[in-house]
Specification:
Layout lengths: L10 H24 L10 H34 L7 H7 L1 H6 L1 H26 L12 H8 L7 E7 L4 E9 L9 E11 L7 E2 L7 E4 L3 E8 L5
Antiparallel strand pairs: 1-2, 1-6, 2-3, 3-4, 3-5
Helix pairs in contact: 1-2, 1-5, 2-5
Length: about 230
């Protein structure tokens, strides 16, 4: 049998992870907070990553400036610079990091904290006039879940593009915001009316489910409680 080797994390490894968060976390925080204030747009992964990276770079640059000023103030008062020297760290590489691990860790953690504060402050500044929050929730979820009495059952009359109308208890639905990905499942009591008929006809009890694709649905009428007559 083979022997398990414990996972060892070198200073360079976890400092790389910390650097990743320094240059990604601020932009990600801003982007996640902004979702509540703006409508979701269709964009490529490259565009989204570029926006997050740009915001993170700006916040991290501002944080580096703030940390540098703090270091200069401390050095002027106590005659000792508390943070690592950037030029020496670039020249020394991992050797300098290992020799000044505490100073490098403290500076990176402080830079991360300041960059997150700058990111959230930028969000509050940009959206300072937008009081209401935007919720990326479909009307289906609002009607079939959020407005559903507890306990309660939802019944729906669903008109399709073909002119057919289906009625029944809402058993399941797909809450995807994209209409192309939605489906609605009705269960007994089931009824149906084609485009040429004038009244709803009861579906035989042996049929237990009907699946309606979202893109084919024109409108939906919903009631709660007892099934409609």
């Amino acid at each position: 049998m083979g022997r398990f080797r414990p996972l060892t994390v070198t200073p360079g490894t976890w400092l790389t992870v910390l650097a990743f968060f320094v240059f990604v976390a601020p932009g990600l925080l801003y982007d996640l907070a902004s979702v509540t204030k703006r409508t979701r747009r269709h964009e490529t992964v490259f565009t989204e990553i570029s926006r997050i990276t740009l915001m993170s770079t700006l916040c991290s640059a501002g944080a580096a400036a703030v940390v540098t000023v703090i270091g200069m103030i401390v050095a002027a008062r106590w005659e000792k610079y508390p943070f690592p020297d950037p030029a020496s760290m670039i020249r020394g590489g991992s050797g300098y990091v290992n020799a000044h691990l505490a100073a490098v860790s403290w500076a990176a953690a402080l830079c991360l904290g300041v960059s997150l504060v700058i990111s959230y402050g930028a969000f509050r500044l940009v959206y300072r006039t937008d009081k209401a929050a935007i919720s990326d929730i479909s009307a289906w979820r609002s009607v079939l879940r959020d407005d559903l009495p507890d306990p309660g059952v939802a019944y729906a009359l669903v008109k399709m593009k073909s002119g057919t109308v289906w009625g029944g208890r809402v058993a399941k639905y797909t809450p995807d915001p994209e209409m192309a990905n939605r489906e609605l499942v009705l269960s007994p009591p089931l009824s149906v009316r084609d485009a040429a008929a004038s009244q709803m006809a009861k579906v035989p009890d042996k049929w237990m489910r009907v699946i309606l694709p979202g893109p084919e649905i024109v409108s939906m009428v919903v009631t709660y409680g007892d099934p409609p007559p």
